[in-house]
């Protein structure tokens, strides 16, 4: 650790802020002319680190501020930056900034920018190695000179300071002071004891006469007590008679007053009931109007539903009849279709035969015509062709053409077969499609039936939920009405409680609640009356006992109450008394064991956490059966007592009682609030449950409606799909018919194509047969015969063909008529009838009918319910009107009762005034005799019974005789006996205190002996260390010389020198106050001859010895750095060199920092860093210079001087 940097501003000659360059951790030297500010630089460092500038007055602080030209400096600071890399200062930083700021009215310290106290700074420096008992880590100007002039005793004081004996001396002085004070007290006690002994001798002689006087005085007091007691008893008896008379009048008046109060309260209740009934009547009228309106609407809806239901039933009936007719017609139609199909089958068969016959005839005609043609051609070939080759060529050409036609016909045949195959496949596909669609229709009809059933189930469930919701709505309405009523009662009770609470306390409690809510303060439990519960019969006793303590607020800790009180004061929010549970102690009370006495605390119900608070308020109070029991318990057991009527007897004897209006009980109001709040909470919980159930039912109804809508949509979709399926079957049948017709046409075309192919093949065969034959121009006989037969045959065949074609056309016409009738009339009508029969409209209408019937039933039920509700509301309205009439009548009766009470009250007031006057006279007499009895003072036990049976006159005669005898002892000291006892006790007490003082003196003397011994040990230990280092340092500074220190002791009452002793002698335990008287210096600069004392040395030698002593002290208690201010001023060059070399060695070996000022070159030469202090316009500046520049400055300064 070392000083790294010094920053100064406004301190003495340093006006502007200067910050030195970082110091060397070893040797730093400061040079400068006289008056430049070197010493102020050292003072600035000491200003922060030492006790030199402490407890400064205003003028002292002003003297530390810069006083140059220009603006006035109002504050200054010095900041020292420490290198703390070794953590010698207990701060977790490698660089520590310590600043002290001073002004005309301030003096502050800062550590790394944070404010700290002077004590904390000194403790921090001491923990870093700066001992307060050893201030020699800073050696300022004049310190060495003062050491050279020190006496032996002063050197001893220096060692004591270094050894830390100051604390022992301070404690020794305190002990001696205490010893002196106790000696003075002992002398005073002895004097007082001597006086008491003399006074006790005198009092012993006066005791006998005093005993005789006391006997007569006792008799006088007994007689006076008997007289006063009889007079008091007589007054009490008369007072009791007056009180009984007053009590009778008061009881009568109280009874009437209570009756009037009851009447008044009853009148208020009746007024409240009247208003409530009026309000209820208005509500009931509105409800009746609403119910009547709803009933009218329900009746309209019921009528509409009846009409809708009838209409639906009629449609269902008509639909049923239509289905029955359709079934009958369908049977007839099916029979007709069956007959038509049979006829069509026969005609089709006959038609096919005719078509075949026509086809065969046509083929025969064609064959014969071809044969005829061939014969004609053959007959004319000879004329047509010139030779066989030409004919064959022509035939070949014909054959080729025919083969081309044949191949075309064959291709057409193949194409027709493929098309026929495709049409057959399409027919099969249509048949399969129709079968699938019929299956889909069956499944869909089943699904529609189930969906309709599910829809009805959902409808029934929704109706159930709606009924349940209606009941819950009614329950919700009832709960809301109950809640409104309970909340109104709570508000009324809270208002009554506010009126019963003192205004300032009420405002304070409201402020406490608001403060806790705004500032989120927990641990506030509330006032006492909110935290307790008890039976109604104890309300009066509890309220009278607690008084305003009922409004005390129970809190967890006193810190919470302090916080709230601060807010109350700031907001002017009233006054509140708090009971902090951490401060209150539950009193331990022993209750009497009696059936007439009950501890009040046991009748209260409260949380065990609040037991200390309730014990504090109610723990010392018991409930007694009556005032007699209360009086006895209060006197014998020292407890506060109270009756159930509120009459109190305190443990000090005071009695409080009278009428207490329990109808304005705060606990009653609180009980109403608490019970109604519980009911409100339970009702609100029940209401929340009902609302939750309503929410769930609404959700379920919504889900059911959604499911119904979804089911309805699905049902409509299924019906649409069903119709589509039926339409698909109809379309498929039409397509099938179309395909069948196309198939017939294709088959006919195929047959024609096959006939043509056959003819072409025959023609080709004939032409091939003709090729290669002989070309002749005439036919053969056979051919001629064939030619002659062919023409008649062809004619005959054509006639047959015409006849056959006519028959086919007739049959075809008949067949077309049957097919048209079937497809256009019969089949279409059958589909229509089947559609009517299979129609599910009746099922939908039946489902709608069921729904409508249920709705009609619900509507009729609602009408019936609303009618009953209307009747109930009408009955309730009539009942309320009747109650209002009765209330008006009763209010008139109560008003008459109050008027009668006013008249009676005037008569009773006169009677009570007379009784009160008589009572006051008796009370004055009672007070007079009670006062006389009290003035008698304490009496013996027999004084109460001795003269109890004697008459009043005889007692007065005996009293007169006793007073005459007492006059003989008028000179007696009446306080002798008391004085004797008092003085005896005082003497014993003083003797006890004297013994305690003597014991204390012995302990203080033992402490002084121990302190002396420890001080001597500390001096010896410090002396040994300093002597060792003194020898080493002197040998380093004066080569060849030697030196030592010698302790001087007090011997036999005179001073003597111990020239040959290097070590101290054994500690003398003979009880002497001072053992050592000084420290003597013995040195030899040559190492030869005798040693010399300080007086025998020259000035330079004394300076060397003083420096040796300083270095020895520093080595004994080392510091992290040292500040030297011109320590080499009075040294010879050889010693300056020796001092510089020693500082160099110590800085290198022990890593110690030195900051020195000098006017000599020796310290400059060993310095690691040199600073120059300059002065201009009364302002100092610090800068770093080289060694050469510093030596030149020193040389110049020495030449000038």
Automatic annotation (TrEMBL):
GO biological process, alphabetically ordered: cell division; DNA repair; meiotic cell cycle; sister chromatid cohesion
Domain SMC hinge, chain residue ranges per copy: 522-634
CDD domains named in the record: ABC_SMC3_euk
Chain positions covered by the region annotation Disordered: 1046-1067
Keywords in alphabetical order: Cell cycle, Cell division, Chromosome, Coiled coil, DNA damage, DNA repair, Meiosis, Mitosis, Nucleus
Pfam families xrefs: SMC_hinge, SMC_N
Assigned GO CC terms: chromatin; nucleus
Subcellular location(s) per record: Chromosome; Nucleus
Single annotated GO MF: ATP hydrolysis activity
Highest taxon in the source lineage: Eukaryota
Coiled-coil annotated spans: 193-350, 406-433, 680-770, 849-932
Protein family: Belongs to the SMC family. SMC3 subfamily.
Protein name: Structural maintenance of chromosomes protein
Species per Swiss-Prot/TrEMBL record: Kalanchoe fedtschenkoi (Lavender scallops)
Lineage: Eukaryota, Viridiplantae, Streptophyta, Embryophyta, Tracheophyta
